[in-house]
Amino acid sequence: xxxxxxxxxxxxxxxxxxxxxxxxxxxxxxxxxxxxxxxxxxxxxxxxxxxxxxxxxxxxxxxxxxxxxxxxxxxxxxxxxxxxxxxxxxxxxxxxxxxxxxxxxxxxxxxxxxxxxxxxxxxxxxxxxxxxxxxxxxxxxxxxxxxxxxxxxxxxxxxxxxxxxxxxxxxxxxxxxxxxxxxxxxxxxxxxxxxxxxxxxxxxxxxxxxxxxxxxxxxxxxxxxxxxxxxxxxxxxxxxxxxxxxxxxxxxxxxxxxxxxxxxxxxxxxxxxxxxxxxxxxxxxxxxxxxxxxxxxxxxxxxxxxxxxxxxxxxxxxxxxxxxxxxxxxxxxxxxxxxxxxxxxxxxxxxxxxxxxxxxxxxxxxxxxxxxxxxxxxxxxxxxxxxxxxxxxxxxxxxxxxxxxxxxxxxxxxxxxxxxxxxxxxxxxxxxxxxxxxxxxxxxxxxxxxxxxxxxxxxxxxxxxxxxxxxxxxxxxxxxxxxxxxxxxxxxxxxxxxxxxxxxxxxxxxxxxxxxxxxxxxxxxxxxxxxxxxxxxxxxxxxxxxxxxxxxxxxxxxxxxxxxxxxxxxxxxxxxxxxxxxxxxxxxxxxxxxxxxxxxxxxxxxxxx
Length: 609
What we know:
By secondary structure, this protein is of the alpha+beta class. The protein is built from 20 helices and 21 strands. The N and C termini lie far apart (110 Å).
């Protein structure tokens, strides 16, 4: 049996590194600057332990362009390297000095050392024909060295002249990468990836980063103005956020950050992926799926965690228990914050509900643990008293004796359009019912989801039936019409609007109720509404004709007048107009039917009609 060590063949690995290590070539600058930050942080640690002697001077990173020489240089004043260290850390692919440093100084260093894979330096070869390193170690008596490689397995390492401590990485850019000689291009990359790194970074003699962003400070050190100022730094064109949550966890995982609740308008013109993920202040991505619960993807802000596992390109999350723990922690923090605001300042909570409602409802639909907490602060706005809101428990208290169906379930009456459904709302509230607003884009799904989770609740749209039929048992008056008159009215109103499946019923309602009302059964209307937004799978329901019940109020004076009319043409016009008015209130009169209604109305208003 033969045993041995697997060897890495550099002739094979360099083409892979140059072409496939990172999908986006601009990442090379982030990696090289991250290495420079590591070197600077190490020096600070050595200075604090006394290992680095004397005054360390200014610690900074400079990014330098030489368009004539076609070079890009990243220069630091960190620990530097000896000839032996260059051979150890540069000539051995995937041997990370950051990992070795962390192991040695575990428990001593406050520095955030970023590199974990030992491959970041080699990203330089994605954009370079040739890479130079000039470096001088911080150690007393060290000699400067120069390393050079053209991306082949061959390299040179020799003594060099260098007076100042630290490392310079000099990239001789290839013809395909000359875009990185443009100052604007470099500035945009630095602002994207390096704007919050902990060591000053200079480009064109200007510092481009904030080394102490708000999330690295303690909440006790920050004022309301500090949080809002940092939000403007992240999103300069956005309105002031509603509020924020400061994350600061060091066990059982490390997590810091600030999550902001933005103002959201009813149009929901929202962009996702506004939360930025950092690792020790290095920007990684703004695609934070799995780390942040889906229902909170509309939040904004920053999450920073060295415990979130990343692949060598730091661009995609890998499956790991810490990710699930962080996800659960963020969910709990958000629920606790909303609960705190609701109970400590309910008027303010209600004022913000237009924006908060989207997060809360989406969370209740997708996360059972969040729903259990949110049921205490999810609120519904009264359709007629706009400043009145009910939790589910409060709605039950107000309606318990009046709004139960024959199965003993609470019936929550709701409106999706208070203006269009105004007549139905008034009829329902006249009977003492409470009607709430459910008019956002998520409410249709929310209603269906909650009915499956709240066993004792049924939602019914206020225009799905006449007010007398909304809640069982029905409380109908006797019609003053005879059987013959009832049958005649039923026949007269049995019109056939295109695309509708119409059923006519004559009921004995209050004389003050409308003469004719159109209603759509709750179940079929929901199926059609969902089918309209469900693509091909929902086409079956979406294309079905609308089922409409036309309820004629047999006790209304207009009905007696219609029955007594001798002019059949005039009578039929009045009947059709009353039916069309009822259909119009449901948004069901369209196209040729609507045109005919308008023309008929104009004719009826003409002199002599």
